[in-house]
Amino acid sequence: MKKKGRNLLAAFRQTFLTLQNMTPQAEAEAELNAASARYSYNPILRWNPQVEDYFIKAYGSLHFAQISKALTRPSCYSCIRVNTLKSTSDAVIEKLQEIMRKSGSQNDVVGINLKENKASNDIDLDMVEKQSSLQNESITKCQIPGLEYVVFVKGSGPHEIDYGYLPDKPPKEVLVSRKCAEAVLRGAQVYVPGIMACSSYVEEGDLVAVSVAVEQPFPDGGWGLGITRGTVLQGLPTDPYHFERHGLYIGQGTTMLSRAGIFRASQGIAVDMNNRVFKLPSFYDVLEGEIFLQNLPSIIAAHALDPQKGERILDMCAAPGGKTTAIAILMKDEGEVIAADRSHNKVIDIQKLAAELGLTCITTYKLDALKAVRKRNGSSDMTTLCCNKDNNDVVNQRSDSGPLGNGVSSTTFVGSNADTTFKENVSNEKANERTYTSKADIRKNTRRMRNGPGRNQSLGGRVENSKGFLPNSFDRVLLDAPCSALGLRPRLFAGEETIESLRNHGKYQRRMFDQAVQLVRPGGVLVYSTCTINPGENEALVRYALDTYKFLSLAPQHPRIGGAGLVGRCEFPDGYVEEWLRPGEEELVQRFDPSSQLDTIGFFIAKFAVGPKDDI
């Protein structure tokens, strides 16, 4: 023990003498090397310790470390879905190339690798080689059979950026929130609300380094920033988050406002990001109606459902409408796609997207997925969608209809005289309303003018409520369930999830699945998907479904480019046992690994065939 202590003391003395004897040039090089490490992008994703142990059991230590690293970075490409009802892939590629030529965009990243599931023989090897041969181009068409309407646009990164650091003169700096930084890594600008702190004497037009403030653990066990917005950064170790933002610099930009203007304004762009760690082209307001930016696994989920013309399909948790519109386009806009979501404003967003893409087969409803099944002995309220396909008394709100000028909801009633009576009653009620405006109404209108459109003033008109749908009333159902979203990227923080919260996600999803399985007719299809890497929300849900509903069976998916599911189980310290897939089932699901060569978000898809079933 004494010998070990003497060795440590000797090593310390040697290090001290070495530092003392360093030449000024060596000292300057050491300082520049330290600055290079500091002004870089090398984040470490922090997890709840129990959650980290759980994922290590599921994936293995090395694999989970690779997943964690991949999650902190965006995909190296953007995936675009072409609206084949309005355009073609070739036409879109030509237009995008012209736009990128005019903007001077250059992409120098390696191409998209589609070799992940080569062993499954679901992707033709000739197709893979053909895709690889196209990778030297910045914009390419997907070569997977059936996905030729998908276009890939390359990005690049990570790039090393010279932030202009000089000894004793650190660069001017802007510190942004974690959520702002994640948006910037995806290609957004830095907006005023996202800035937490800033160097002093920053003026409009200054070049600034942009760093990130990631949540830190609090003594009470929670997480937070613990920083006052507007704090002055001096580039010294005494700065808030000085050590925590080491290796968390995401780029360089030009300020659009002075420091005073940044913290005085309530909105607008604060920093124009012109030198990014990851460069991904922006498609904001580009070719509206012709293209839709969507993650590749989400497109695959719509394909797994295999919608056919003339069918009746339900998207249970439809916002923001990407999969809904993908399904409608695959059906050639022929049939009926019901898009439901519990959020009023999100339903309106679906309506807007459907109108933008020119789709008329989509009907939208505000509906909680936990109350999706309407009991047969329920009330036949006029605002309820009756789900018998042969029943003509249906309340439809078409997604392409806007608000009516007289204030009547854009709701149509088919197969009865109720529409005339309903509109007359509404008109009479409007006519009989009092014309006196109270002070409370004046204050409310003033707030609306100041704060912008609210729930009942959202553009796009009213949203029709639904009390649910009758059992066995849909040919196919997509349940893209709300989840922990631990597969989304880039992600700079994951500490908020606990073992308990992950289990609660799973319980919530099982309740929604119980609703979904009742709505699919025998002989139909049910697709379940999530954007998380958590096996408790993926494989464990499949195990629950197959054990609970004997008439369900896993069905093959086409195209299949994702990896296999997890087989086995996990035992927790508290005695809880989580069952996953059994041997032979893993190849019937698709698990998208963010650390794989496919370079997608983390995603999971399971497809169930619905056999003959008893009343449930």
TrEMBL record:
GO biological process: RNA methylation
Chain positions recorded as S-adenosyl-L-methionine binding sites: 317-323, 341, 368, 480
Catalytic-site annotation from UniProt: 531 (nucleophile)
Sections of the chain in a coiled coil: none
Gene3D superfamilies in the cross-refs: PUA domain, Vaccinia Virus protein VP39
UniProt entry tagged with the keyword Transferase: yes
Keywords, ordered alphabetically: Methyltransferase, RNA-binding, S-adenosyl-L-methionine, Transferase
Gene Ontology terms for molecular function: RNA binding; RNA methyltransferase activity
Domain SAM-dependent MTase RsmB/NOP-type: residue ranges: 224-611
Keyword Transferase tagged: yes
InterPro entries: MeTrfase_RsmB-F_NOP2_cat, MeTrfase_RsmB-F_NOP2_dom, PUA-like_sf, PUA_sf, RCMT, RsmB/NOL1/NOP2-like_CS, SAM-dependent_MTases_sf
Family per record: Belongs to the class I-like SAM-binding methyltransferase superfamily. RsmB/NOP family.
PANTHER family in the cross-refs: NOP2 YEAST -RELATED NOL1/NOP2/FMU SUN DOMAIN-CONTAINING, TRNA (CYTOSINE(72)-C(5))-METHYLTRANSFERASE NSUN6
Name this polypeptide is given: rRNA (Cytosine-C(5))-methyltransferase NOP2C isoform X2
Species in which this protein is naturally found: Gossypium hirsutum (Upland cotton)
Gene: LOC107912676
